[in-house]
Amino acid sequence: MERRQFIGTSLIAGLGTFLVNPSELFSGTIVEQVNLSPNNDISLSPFLWGDDLHKVLQVSNLDKTVREALHHNYEYFQLGMGWKVGSQDLLKIIDYLKYEIKENPESKWFSQKISLYFGLLVGKAHTKFIHSSSETSQGISEKDIYRDCYLIKMLQNAGEEKNRIPITKSLKKESYDSVKEGFRLMRERNLLRMHTYKAEFSDAEKWIGDVIDLHHESADNDEKYAKIYCNPNPEKIEKYILTPQFYNEEDLIIKTAKDIQMFTIAGQIDLKPSLNSEAKSQHAKALQEGCNLSFACGDYLKSTISKDAWGKILGD
């Protein structure tokens, strides 16, 4: 397997996002006034899911201002997914955004804040349908790694049939070192990308210490990832992927995301068939929910639904 292809298709912003607190990035805004908590999910799956959702939202009928903000500020969308916020605080955040869109669209970091807020919003959909064991255990679990490797391979297999990477079979022995190196580079590049959020922090020494700790913790996982990626156990794939219906590439909304990835879809499209189709997998159901939450938010921002209706959609 060619290393550049591995890095190019696997590098999804996400690692270490909980080290970058949005309230520090956007001091003096509504983000400082709400209760944010890190997801503490160090697996890649939520961000690979978020990447699919981000693609689909790009071709949706969301307002142009929102779509452009998401397009140009991808890292902030993924940053939002790395944090949790309650429904009542989300109401406050979106109310603040609605005010800014109407009264102060030239405010500082306006576009980045839109992307961040939508990331916080859609995280609810992922939490609802896809529960990661990282939320209740120390470190990353075997289930997390199997799911991460499975999604990475599905992402890589979006191209021509002849280039498909085996899902249940072992790769050639010489692939192991290349794959392990690929995970190392992916991890280090993601750590470097955190610097692009904001170069200075109020407690730089603590932040650097946290990054070093995360670096060492994540480095210990490189070998675990490489072993499972190169030598998956079919019984574990059945247990963690197939039986719970974690992912099904035949789900229409997943096919749509894959078509967007391969540039067979360009411009806005009617997503109703994808949203109304019966989704079999957790991944697809969460994508549908993420889209519906985003569209409802867009409607509220345009005042086509009431605040009460928007609040009911968010739930408790």
TrEMBL record:
Domain of life: Bacteria
Name of the protein this chain belongs to: Uncharacterized protein
Originating species: Aquimarina celericrescens
